[in-house]
Amino acid sequence: xxxxxxSTIRIFISYKRGVTPDEPVALEVFRAFSQDYSVxxxxxxxxxxxxxxxxxxxxxxxxxxxxLLSGYSVSSEMVKGEIETAYHLGKQHGKPKLLPVRVAYQxxxxxxxxxxxxxxxxxxxxxxxxxxxxxxELRRAxxxxxxxxxxxxxxADLIQASVPSPIPQPQPFAQPIPTLExxxxxxxxxxxxxxxxxxxxxxxxxxxxxxxxxxxKGPRQMGKSSLLLRTIGAAGAMNKxxxxxxxxxxxxxALTDANQFFRQFCVWLTDVLEMDDRVQExxxxxxxxxxxxxxxxxxxxxxxxxxxxVLAMDEVECIFDTEFRSDFFSMxxxxxxxxxxxxxxxxxxxxxxxxxxxxxxIDNLNQSPFNVGQVLELTDFxxxxxxxxxxxxxxxxxxxxxxxxxxxxxxxxxxxxxALYLVATQQITIDHLFEQAAHExxxxxxxxxxxxxxxxxxxxxxxxLLQVLNKQTCQDERLFFRLRGAGLVRRDGQRVVPRCxxxxxxxxxxxxx
Length: 513
Description:
This protein is α/β, with parallel strands linked by helices. It has helices spanning about 5, 20-35, 50-60, 75-95, 115, 130-140, 150-160, 200-205, 225-235, 260-270, 280, 290-305, 325-340, 360, 385-390, 400-410, 415-425, 430-435, 445-455, 460-470, 475-485, 500-510; strands at about 10-15, 40, 65-70, 95-100, 100-105, 125, 215, 240-245, 310-315, 350-355, 375, 490, 495-500. The chain contains 22 helices and 13 strands. The strands form three sheets. Strands 1, 2, 3, 4, 5 and 6 form a six-stranded parallel beta sheet that branches. A five-stranded parallel beta sheet has the order 8-9-10-7-11, with helices on both faces. Strands 12-13 form a two-stranded antiparallel sheet. A hairpin with a 2-residue loop joins strand 12 (about 490) and strand 13. Helix 10 runs parallel beside helix 12 (about 290-305) and helix 15 crosses helix 16. The longest helix is centred in the first third of the chain and has 17 residues, at about 75-95.
């Protein structure tokens, strides 16, 4: 490859800042490749809306995207957000090409990283002695070759779930506690750190019946997907067939073309059920998309299965901006209604998860699947639930400190778990956590930067949040529901306020219109 052509190649390095070995490896790659390529690494940029815009721009321009995946970075919201963006850009535009590097990390990727990374090749770095070999392997990949870990057997040989994590484990407290789990989003149903709420009991009782519709709604990071997994786990234990579809994984092109979307929906559903794909054979172009989709599910999938099935759909608001969203959700409502007249539809349970207010997803509420059956709305933890979670972490916080944490985070489930994990593993003292809470590189910095990254190009959301911060109001009700769905604001009587004190402090400093 000629030097002139090399210099036009753009590389984006994604990593978890401030931890070892992630940052040293990232800097080695940056120094080695900067001599020949245009390399972007976020190391000294000031956080704010311009920072988020530059991250987005660099991802769009990149030819190659190198995520460094360690026990730390796989739980980083910012790293996961960059991987998700790069993945969809690659699908839509053919670049960047993903070149994932496992950094002394031999555990299976958890969802959703597994959906983005399991089917592509990996590289592996174990220790500093591997650095030169890794650099050579990445250079070969940029030149057109494959990364070394490419077969299913090679991946299986590398993955060793029992390898001890380099992440600190807690010192003994006064009472025995289970091995701590990093707060990584969706929780396993059997997790000792899962805090049951009233909605859990209702969902588990409801799914025991046949022919039910369950809607789980609430702002981002409220535990909706975790409750969905518990629900479908209970369904599986009852020998119901479960088909789980995460709408985040739909190709972007499918979201602009109704015909492609409905066909892809049926193909994907068939694949998840491990049945033969007959979409091409059974599709009738003389019929509409919803008619074809309904005929396919009724006359083929449900008929051939012959057993109860749960169709679980997560992140359904991903089709919010499509022209066919009302058609799709009306179709689901028709499936719900058909149970009354056609026995075959009683074999189908529907479970939907959304962070968007249902009335925004469909124009005619009489055709909505979100206001029938069992509707469950999740809220932040209350003080008692935070106390329970503190106890399960070995009670690293005093009663007074738990109260202070509630004031700071408002019972935010994910941030509360993160705070308790950091203190219980002695990665930070509780005093330091409170002092540095709203700092861009503090204990919640990764989470806060992710919100900026996701919001920077949506000016109406930026202006709406600024209005909430400055005037404690949001005049546009539609905008309020979008901000609430993103988990950023809540109602307090007649006022609209930031969801928690942490958000108020951070966005007041870093958000600019």
